[in-house]
């Protein structure tokens, strides 16, 4: 390559680096913290209301994930969860509502392919690996705990 071409390439690379937007880390972290905290606070509020209306604490703790999953799925279905996620970023990956969103989003996206090859097959594309490794890890930990229990260590 000629000297002039190398200079043009170097100038282009410098201009490209200058044009790349700089991430706003503090703002992103703060929004994720606030929105994730708000989702958790809503969950705590729902739990407190269930208990206040006479449902015993153990039953309320069973109902809370069902309600939070429903809310996450509903907000995903009507397109609100995606708007919240684009505003808050990682704050919407609070486990229960994030899981609900991860299940419903692909199902909605692939429903045009049918219920078997679309919804059912694609529903676990995002959540599937999380489930596989989460369940696999829990089985391994359970086996280790069981063996340690047989040995009298735990």
TrEMBL record:
It comes from the Bacteria. Keywords: Membrane, Transmembrane, Transmembrane helix. The keyword Transmembrane helix applies. The chain crosses the membrane at residues 29-50, 62-81, 87-104, 124-148. The keyword DNA damage does not apply. InterPro entries: Spore_V_AC, SpoVA. This is Stage V sporulation protein AC. The gene is spoVAC.
């Amino acid at each position: 390559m000629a000297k002039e071409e190398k200079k043009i390439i170097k100038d282009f690379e410098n201009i490209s680096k200058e044009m790349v937007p700089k991430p706003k880390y503090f703002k992103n972290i703060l929004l994720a913290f606030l929105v994730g905290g708000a989702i958790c606070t809503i969950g705590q509020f729902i739990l407190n209301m269930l208990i206040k209306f006479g449902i015993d604490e153990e039953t309320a703790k069973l109902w809370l994930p069902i309600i939070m999953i429903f809310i996450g799925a509903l907000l995903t279905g009507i397109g609100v969860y995606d708007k919240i996620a684009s505003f808050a970023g990682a704050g919407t990956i609070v486990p229960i509502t994030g899981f609900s969103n991860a299940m419903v989003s692909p199902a909605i996206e692939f429903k045009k392919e049918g219920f078997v090859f679309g919804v059912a097959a694609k529903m676990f594309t995002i959540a599937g690996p999380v489930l596989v490794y989460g369940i696999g890890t829990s089985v391994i930990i359970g086996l280790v705990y069981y063996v340690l229990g047989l040995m009298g260590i735990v």
